[in-house]
Amino acid sequence: xxxxxxxxxxxxxxxxxxxxxxxxxxxxxxxxxxxITGSGGTPPYTALVLPYGASPLPNNTEVRRxxxxxxxxxxxxxxxxxxxxxxxxxxVSDATGFGTGGTSTAAQVQTGSSDSSCYGxxxxxxxxxxxxxxxxxLVQCSPIRIWWTASEAQxxxxxxxxxxxxxxxxxxxxxxxxxxxxxxxxxxxxxVRAGTTVILTGGDNRGIGxxxxxxxxxQEGISGTDNSCLNATSPSSTPxxxxxxxYPTGSNGAGASxxxxxxxxxxxxxxxxxxxGGSKSKTNIGAIVGGVIGGITALxxxxxxxxxxxxxxRFHEKKGRRNTAHTVDLLHGxxxxxxxxxxxxxGELPQFYQPEPFLVPDPTIxxxxxxxxxxxxxSSGDALLGAHAHQSSVSTSTxxxxxxxxxxxxxxxxxxxxxxxxGxxxxxxxxxLPPAYTHIKKGTGSRANVAASEADVGH
Length: 459
Hints:
Order of helices and strands: HEEEEEEEEEEEEEEEEEEEHHHH
Radius of gyration: 57 Å
Largest sheet: 5 strands, antiparallel
Number of helices: 5
Structural class: alpha+beta
Shape: rod-shaped
Helix content: 10-25%
């Protein structure tokens, strides 16, 4: 006796008895025409149209529903309620089982129709949503749990696996179990090779597709590849030409015949596709918000870096201008610039710093009227006057070569002495007064005359 997991594969092998083709260009809110080819099919036939890929509408709003169309003849025409530039997959079945007529690859709705009355503008939702544990993860030969809320079902739900451009099959259901926080469901070991795109969908007495659909890529296990459930009849993409015939697969409207092994790699991994009687579509709000915040943060950081480098560049430009500015020599005029540069080249000091020796003038000896030698004392006024004159002459000099010291003029120095022992108190008293200099005109006269006047007053 064959295991239950192999029963859907026998149904898939019967797809060679008949097939179908899409005979017109799919357009928004226009009829889609299918034709049964070959013999061996048993009416009634069913065409299941499932959304594939992301919605082309703004904000990824999913308005597509899974369409389950039944017909008895060898052809059918029905309204395709999908917007332009969206994609879909068609699965044809007959009375003997699911997917016996084959599965098309992803076809694209072409532009050219302005009629949008066949679909709404709000997000659709499935009437019998289902979930998987682990969520959004199919692993080759690893079990997953498919579950739903029992109160939302009408009859016993059935679930199906659809491989675009390959084989579609019914998922066998062992005994149902109820798990807390997971509702009613069953375990299923995924008998599909890693890298294959699988669309999961389900239905109840209301038809296939009322559970919505989930599109996932089968992955390999973390601990290694488990091939224990695989064999030559495992579901996969169909070698050769898949069902559906020639139909547009791109926005240019050109027909394409898909040959060879089709793994559906164009589908995003672990994404939820919209669904017919309702869609179990999950939008990863966290990823969207994180991406927006990350983009804003990157812009702010880039702006701060630009501001930092701009200010740094201005700072270095100002510093360079200050370093290259013309220097002004306060010790030399503009006319002495060449001589100053030549002196520096010869290693000579500037003229302002030329040392000049300090010469002490010879003292002048003056004799008193009574023949006694008088001591000498430097006149502080004369010394200050000579120093001031000498300093002024040096600081204002613009000589190119240093000159010798200026000639010294004679200076008379007089020191007053006591006249002898103090006499009796009754005698004549002499009072010495400092000179008044009232007879000297301002700016005239010599220091020698001033000294003589002081001598006369003293004696």
